[in-house]
Amino acid sequence: MKISALKSLAVVALATAPLLAAAQLSANVSLNSSYKFRGQDQTANKPALQGGFDYAHGSGAYVGIWNSNVTWLPGNSLETDIYGGYKGEVAGVGYDVGFLRYMYPGAGVANTNEIYAGVSFAGFGAKYYRTVSDQYFGGSKAGYLALSYSMEVAKGVTASVGVGFTDFKNGTDYTDYSVGLGYDIGDGYSVKAALVGANKKAVYGDINKNRLVLTFAKAM
Length: 220
Fold this sequence. Notes:
Elements: H1 2-21, E1 23-32, E2 36-37, E3 40-41, E4 48-57, E5 61-69, E6 78-90, E7 93-103, E8 112-121, E9 124-131, E10 142-154, E11 157-168, E12 174-186, E13 189-198, H2 201-204, E14 211-219
């Protein structure tokens, strides 16, 4: 029995070895002066420590987890996102489709599921998210369209702009925006400064206020 079990284990190891060799595990961590999500404050303009892990396969499939401290929910101080999808490129055009779940331990009413699909080309990006099977962070269902552009303006220096449109089924739609400048220090370290905010401040208040968000990050 022991010999048979060892043989079976060896067969499984040989079969999965090519898959493991084609996969890559990476990690990231960042310290931010504040946390903005789609233009809205998540930490009341206080610092946020964020980080996660990604597992990407050579086929294009990937899964990941990401975490951040938050302050906007009673009885909760943590956001945990899990996601998975498939990405690739055809004729120079990148594509990305997947599923994303936002979780807030102790405040389950805000847990949200989204599906997404996006394309990218020559620094331009467009991605659309749609809630499924639940509400949007405790509110009505919604869709979100994110448009972005980035380019290297000097060695190691990247400028980026973005605009996003949140479309509620029952709620006040709004537009968010960002303009940023990042610098690749090397060895996985980077810094970035971005002005982030949203319109409809008369409706949403200070959470949509413009903020200068500073980020120090490390990718591994």
